[in-house]
Amino acid sequence: MRRVLLSVLLLVPALTGSLLAQELKLPNKNGSVKFAxxxxxxxxxxxxxxxxxxxxxxxxxxxxxxxxxxxxxxxGGDSPKDYVKKFESPYKALLDAGVKFYxxxxxxxxxxxxxxxxxxxxxxxxxxxxxxxxAGVRFFALDSNYMDPKQLEWLEKELAASGSDWKIAFFHHxxxxxxxxxxxxxxxxxxxxxxxxxxxxxxxTGHEHFYERIxxxxxxxxxxxxxxxxxxxxxxxxxxxxxxxxxDSGNTFMLxxxxxxxxxxxxxxxxxxxIDSGVVKKGTDNRVVGTVVQGAAPRPAQNAAKPAPPRPNPx
Length: 315
Known about the structure:
By secondary structure, the protein is α/β, with parallel strands linked by helices. Helices cover 23% and strands 24% of the residues.
């Protein structure tokens, strides 16, 4: 009897931990805009498959309708077999459930991918969409590989014409980041003045193979989510002073819900552990006034500050 009781007592914490690991921290409000965010996905690896399973599992609790792909959606070849291995198979459960993917191009992507129907790019390198006619949210997908004057002119025109309360940009190369590539200073000079002028609130990027929530910059909240299939362990350099929270110990994805003047986010790893969660709040001028953290898993030792020298900034 004592052995049975001991086994039960040992099992309870394990089950409790497992349940907590899969806890949804988003409010899941009726009428909110719900979506997932994945970056640097196109490997076809077991890591991509594992994240795909977790995204599908959380969809049962958080019924999002679409997902953003932040570039490098297809590493290496992009034959029909590659699309199956690196996209259709890892996300089959999501595609079967009707989840719509919106892709941006990364530096490892063939520009011809914009014609792939399931990426919903409609043949364009950059585009905009509004997922709901009633919610005041509009997304702007950019091609950060080639930010030519024509694209910048298009972006300013679209931003100026949009009366949405939430203007969300997503693309591949991060204007602010603390990894091997670092902040893309050219993109920052090109894009940030437009973001500030026209009230872009939130920006999602990839390229760096980790998760990083940047401290708000000029009223804009930046996220780096480039570890949904690839990972560069221990790569976050905290000497940049940009990092509000960073995680470079495992693969991750994000869930996001927007309701009114609040954007809720939860970042989850392949073990269904919450890495980061909180709410981005904006003011009447659309600028982010603060990001409130709701709770996160303990950060691993390798996320401590590193006395690393400044790093080069290759694209």
